[in-house]
């Protein structure tokens, strides 16, 4: 692989890591362009959408190289984004070798996240404290702790099976509503609505909505609209799961909820 081929592959790989871990479209484009210009590429053009990267470079001889990367899976890992941003700044400020950058990107890409036990514990407390934030009682707090753990366990298990995100969010919403209704019915919890609202905050696509707004403001209309559509369908999935459970509960209990 010649130098220009390696440059474009490294730039695209850096962009992929950022995009795949929740980064904004403009950040991906800026990082790839910054890396290419650091190695004296004459011209760079990059187009990024939430599910793909397209980058083209022109070398000193006027030859054009293009590369397309398809993004299949996306998650949220802000630490990886921060590491790639730090690396891109270091590339611009000092002369790092292509081999070093490639190895560093591989290291960042293979960074291990928190294990499932910590994620489940964190999700449990997030749901509990959101419930308190929305005015729930201490009893509601402890119910939300259980719901948060259940939602995260379901999410981790189904993600291993590569289940569709729409189904995962629907099931998470259904689990939160069912446990909340049962807890109030058994006088364990006090406010079903606050428990449900606090618990489903784990599923609310806050980062997706934020990125949709930022991309739209930055002029990346395709990315902005697609991210907004994604957030809209996640909200629908949560509403469907929660609504179905509440509907069936009303049906089988005769519309009486303690």
Automatic annotation (TrEMBL):
It is found in: Cell membrane. Belongs to the ThrE exporter (TC 2.A.79) family. Its main location: membrane. PANTHER family: SUCCINATE TRANSPORTER SUBUNIT YJJP-RELATED (PTHR34390:SF2), UPF0442 PROTEIN YJJB-RELATED (PTHR34390). This is Threonine/serine exporter family protein. It comes from the Bacteria. The chain crosses the membrane at residues 118-135, 166-189, 195-213, 233-252. It is a multi-pass membrane protein. Keywords: Cell membrane, Membrane, Transmembrane, Transmembrane helix. Residues 10-248 form the Threonine/serine exporter-like N-terminal domain. It comes from Clostridium aestuarii. The keyword Transmembrane helix applies. It holds the Pfam family ThrE.
């Amino acid at each position: 692989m010649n130098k220009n081929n390696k440059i474009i592959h490294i730039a695209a790989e850096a962009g992929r890591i950022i995009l795949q871990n929740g980064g904004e479209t403009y950040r991906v484009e800026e990082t790839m362009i910054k890396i290419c210009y650091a190695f004296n590429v004459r011209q760079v053009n990059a187009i990024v959408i939430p599910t793909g990267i397209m980058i083209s470079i022109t070398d000193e001889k006027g030859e054009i190289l293009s590369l397309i990367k398809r993004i299949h899976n996306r998650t949220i890992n802000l630490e990886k984004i921060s590491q790639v941003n730090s690396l891109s700044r270091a590339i611009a400020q000092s002369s790092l070798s292509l081999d070093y950058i490639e190895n560093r990107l591989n290291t960042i890409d293979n960074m291990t996240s928190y294990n499932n036990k910590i994620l489940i514990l964190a999700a449990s407390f997030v749901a509990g404290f959101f419930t308190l934030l929305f005015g729930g009682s201490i009893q509601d707090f402890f119910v939300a702790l259980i719901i948060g753990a259940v939602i995260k366990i379901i999410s981790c298990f189904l993600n291993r099976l590569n289940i569709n995100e729409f189904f995962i969010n629907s099931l998470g919403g259904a689990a939160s509503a069912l446990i909340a209704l049962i807890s109030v019915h058994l006088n364990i919890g006090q406010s079903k609505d606050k428990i449900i609202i606090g618990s489903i905050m784990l599923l609310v696509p806050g980062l997706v909505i934020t990125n949709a707004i930022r991309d739209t403001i930055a002029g990346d209309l395709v990315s902005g609209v697609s991210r907004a559509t994604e957030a809209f369908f996640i909200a629908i999935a949560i509403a469907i799961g929660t609504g179905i459970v509440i509907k069936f509960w009303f049906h089988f209990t005769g519309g009486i909820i303690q």
